[in-house]
Amino acid sequence: MVPELGVIEGYFGRPWRHDARKQVIARLRQIGYSFFHYAPKADEFLRRRWRESHPDEALDELAELSAHCRSLGMRFGVGLSPYELYRDLGGVSRKEFAAKVRTLDELGIDELAILFDDTRGDIPDLAAREAEIVHLALANTRAGRVLMCPTYYSDDHMLDVTFGARPRGYLEELGRRLDPRVGVYWTGEEICAREHSAGHLARVGESLGHKPTLWDNYPVNDGPRMSRFLHLRGFTGRPSVIGPLVAAHAINPALQPHLSLIPAATLAASYREGTAYCYMSAFRTAARAWAGDTLAIMLETDLHDMQDRGIDQLGEVRERLRRRYAALDHPIATEVVRWLDGADTVSGWVEELDRS
Length: 356
Description:
Strand order of the largest sheet: 1-2-3-4-5-6-7-8
Shape: globular
Largest sheet: 8 strands, parallel, barrel
Helix content: 40-55%
CATH class of the largest domain: Alpha Beta
Number of domains: 2
Number of helices: 15
Radius of gyration: 20 Å
Oligomer: single chain
CATH superfamily of the largest domain: Glycosidases
Structural class: alpha/beta
């Protein structure tokens, strides 16, 4: 069984360019992806400044993106993080949240995701408060599907270290309180899970009372450490047997939109091919499809340098790689050059913001 495949643009760092986003969505549709959720962490109007409206130009781009998705037969959604709304659910805050949801509806969204990730969770009645907010969204949106991401969206203890100890029975209570129509994003046993096992997903589904929607943190490469690597290899650790255990499977893509197509295509292949799937063979097929023969061979040759060694370990190899990729006129080659220049690392992005 092949579950619904989608993308949630939920990384930290520079958001994709509007034109690149449209190009990549069209290609994702070709390989079997059926939904796209716009939720970059850098969009402050969906996070800390959620009470404010996006600038007109940004709203126009999002409306255009929604229409573009629909023209392809792909569902478009937005991820809204109502930052710390659960600390104040008074009348004014409720009205502001409902108004924000209706504003997003005007974009023509098919799906709405309410995201509580990366916020403090050590407060009383967390599950009850989050469920109340999600139900408020459900009551005010025209979107056909509503999802949510819990504060504790993984078994990973790092969430407890960073955001406070999770309440006892949090996931089970959330599952009891949520309307069954609401999908729940889940990243796995770790924040960036090495694999998704049938046993784990069955246990999470039992706790929630329905199947989770995977938020798969591969090939994402955000953050100070991960941004110094390119994640290009084919998916592993996602056996096709997990298909019946998930409501959908969404990937969090890399900072490089066109390069993200390569691993994205291998995930579709892993479900389609089942036990016959070979991750390097799938990588080669996808690389040739999206980069062409010459560039595909280069990417495979340099895979160890870019995915395993990373920028900081390349030494003089870095400049040689840059010259080779800069000689090619292709968006994938351009993304490799940008990465080699350090422009897509966290430090590079911050420096660019400072200059602007």
